[in-house]
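Input (structure):
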C-alpha cells in the first residue's frame, strides 16, 4: 500500500486534480519519497506498460543476437511478438474475466466491501475530528492495479471536494491508515480478488462533515 499525499511524492504536480475521486493508474507515474523504498518504486515502475512490453520482447532480441543468420526472419515476425505480449498481459499478469467468478465467494466479497466502507468512514471521521472540520466532503480513495499474479499495488489517498485536492496527510494520519485499513480479515490481496470479481479497481468511501455527530467526533479524538 502506498499512501498518496503531497508529502509522500516528489512530483506533487502529478496530484493536481479537477474532480474527485482522482484516478492515478494509467494517468501519471508517481515518484515516492522518504528513503526511496526500492520495492515500492520497482512495483510502481512495473505498471509502465511500455517497459513490460520491452521485457516481453527481450527474448526476441537475444535470439537475434545468438542466431544472426535468422535475425531478419525473427525481426519480421511482428505477429508472434504481439501474441507474446497479449499472452503475458492477459494470462500471466492478469486473470481473464471468464475465470474471475471463482476467485472469491460473492457473499464474502460483499462482506469485504461492507467492512471497507465501515473502516473508511472511521478513518475519515478521525481525520475530520482531529482537524475540527465541520463542512465539506472527504473521500477515502482506494485504487488498485488489476495485475493479479504479482504483489498487489494499492494507492490510498484522502481527497477533498474543496479545491478539489488530494489532502496533505500528517505522519500520524498516514500511520493510522496503515494500521487500520487492511487489518484482518480484509487484506490488500483479498480486496484485489473482490475487485477482480467485479472488474472495479477504484473504491470511493465518502463522508459529509455535516453528518458527523459530536459524539462521533469525541470518540474519534479519543482513539
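Output (sequence):
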Amino acid at each position: 500500500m502506498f499512501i498518496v499525499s503531497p508529502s509522500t511524492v516528489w512530483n506533487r504536480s502529478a496530484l493536481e486534480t479537477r474532480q474527485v475521486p482522482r484516478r492515478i493508474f494509467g494517468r501519471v507515474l508517481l515518484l515516492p519519497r522518504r528513503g526511496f523504498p526500492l520495492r515500492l518504486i520497482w512495483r510502481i515502475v512495473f505498471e509502465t506498460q511500455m517497459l513490460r512490453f520491452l521485457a516481453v520482447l527481450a527474448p526476441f532480441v537475444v535470439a537475434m543476437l545468438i542466431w544472426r543468420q535468422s535475425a531478419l526472419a525473427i525481426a519480421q515476425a511482428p505477429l508472434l511478438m504481439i501474441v507474446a505480449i497479449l499472452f503475458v498481459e492477459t494470462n500471466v499478469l492478469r486473470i481473464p474475466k471468464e475465470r474471475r467468478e471463482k476467485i472469491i465467494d460473492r457473499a464474502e466479497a460483499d462482506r469485504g466491501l461492507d467492512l471497507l466502507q465501515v473502516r473508511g468512514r472511521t478513518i475519515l471521521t478521525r481525520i475530520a475530528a482531529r482537524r475540527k472540520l465541520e463542512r465539506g466532503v472527504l473521500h477515502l480513495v482506494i485504487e488498485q492495479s488489476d495485475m493479479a499474479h504479482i504483489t498487489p499495488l494499492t494507492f490510498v489517498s484522502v481527497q477533498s471536494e474543496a479545491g478539489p485536492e488530494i489532502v496533505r496527510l500528517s505522519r500520524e494520519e498516514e500511520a493510522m491508515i496503515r494500521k487500520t485499513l487492511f487489518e484482518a480479515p480484509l487484506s490488500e490481496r483479498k480486496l484485489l480478488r473482490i475487485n477482480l470479481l467485479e472488474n472495479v479497481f477504484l473504491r470511493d468511501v465518502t463522508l459529509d462533515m455535516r453528518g458527523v455527530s459530536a459524539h462521533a467526533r469525541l470518540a474519534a479524538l479519543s482513539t
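Notes: The chain has two domains: 2-16+103-221, 49-93. Residues 133 and 209 are 7 Å apart (CA to CA).
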